[in-house]
Fold this sequence. Notes:
The chain is built from 10 helices and 13 strands. The protein has helices at 29-37, 84-93, 108-119, 166-181, 198-202, 232-238, 247-260, 305-318, 323-337, 348-362; strands at 43-48, 50-63, 70-83, 97-105, 127-130, 136-144, 151-158, 185-190, 209-213, 227-228, 265-269, 275-279, 287-291. Strands 5-4-1-8-9-10-11-12-13 form a 9-stranded mixed sheet, sandwiched between helices. The chain has a 4-stranded mixed sheet with strand order 3-2-6-7. Strand 12 and strand 13 (287-291) form a beta hairpin. Helix 1 (29-37) packs antiparallel against helix 10 (348-362) and helix 8 (305-318) packs antiparallel against helix 9 (323-337). The longest helix has 16 residues, at 166-181. It is globular, with a radius of gyration of 20 Å. Magnesium ion is lined by residues 212, 231, 306.
Amino acid sequence: MSVRPRKIKRHSRTAARFVGRATDATVDLTRLLDIVASFPRQTICVVGDFVLDQFVSGEISRVSREAPVLILRHRRTESYPGGASNAVNNLADLGARVLPVGVVGDDEAGKTLLEYFRRKRVNVSGILRSHDWVTSTKTRYLAGWTHTAEQQVLRVDREPREQLPTRIQDSVESKARKAAKSADAVLISDYGLGAASPALVRSLDAKRITLDSRYRLLDYRDAGVTAATPNEPELEAAYHSAIGVDARKLEELGRRALSDLSLQALLVTRGKDGMAVFESGAGKEARSHNILIYGPDVPVDVTGAGDTVIAVFTLALAAGASYLEAAHLANYAGGIVVMKRRTATVTRAELDAVLRREATAQR
Ligand SMILES: Nc1ncnc2c1ncn2[C@@H]1O[C@H](COP(=O)(O)OP(=O)(O)OP(=O)(O)O)[C@@H](O)[C@H]1O
Ligand SMILES: [Mg+2]
């Protein structure tokens, strides 16, 4: 039985520190630029839990007389793809051909997601729409004065009460198997809602499979996963063990996950503390590397940063990057996306521009 990890976001309260150049001399930026240039030639299948991220913002008008709560004057409601669909959205903006596979409900949120992707010319034939399902929606209420930054005051989640019906699981599996065959990589985004599962992954015939699983990383052992991208709290929860500031513990758990899941690589995202990459060498001892974050360590909005990371990591692997090169690219993308408000994406042009700037600075 896996434990639901408590999500710990490491927000610094001190002034922003530009940690900056993640690029050390060992990173070949020309090579990274070539990899990014070949993104449009890759096809990535994304299987997982589609979520709608909603942001309702309002101006603080007064305190209610009914109860001691703020009354907000509604400014706007914005909706973005979240969860697996955020990975899809990032891949589309990175120029890849994306084949999303998942399920939405026959409801407003499902319609919004499908319309969003149709407008972006993403192939939605792999997204099932079912009467027996509720599209998972996360609504954030943001309050602010006219000239101040908005602050989240409440989040309301709408989630299906029951498990995904077996009949729908089977349809998702058959769509995934078909899409996986023509893809250069399959990205699994398991947020615990049931569209992706270890059984489904085991049934895939794919060139490479990357995995992000919020609650059951270790259930994917022997599922044929190539690389996984847990955040540090997820790795801690998987082994019921705290890492904290203990670098040796991180090293120990990273190596354990690499071996328990028979992975080629493990990318552990560590919020403002960067990333740790573990690689299993053929016949050799596993290698590990630490990567510092790119950019300031006080983010604007970390919503969905993990989805951007796995999208770039997967796409780079499909394009022929080594695990370390793919991790460096994902790290740049993570640094860019946390400086944007709401659930955001990184475009290929943005990634290209950052790499060119770094290359100039390195000379
Ligand atoms: N506080 C921060 N400062 C700078 N960069 C950050 C910060 N938090 C996250 N990032 C960037 O975003 C990446 C992914 O963040 P994080 O480790 O929080 O993933 P996650 O918890 O899986 O995210 P998600 O909420 O999408 O699941 C980090 O590796 C880093 O590049
Ligand atoms: Mg995550």
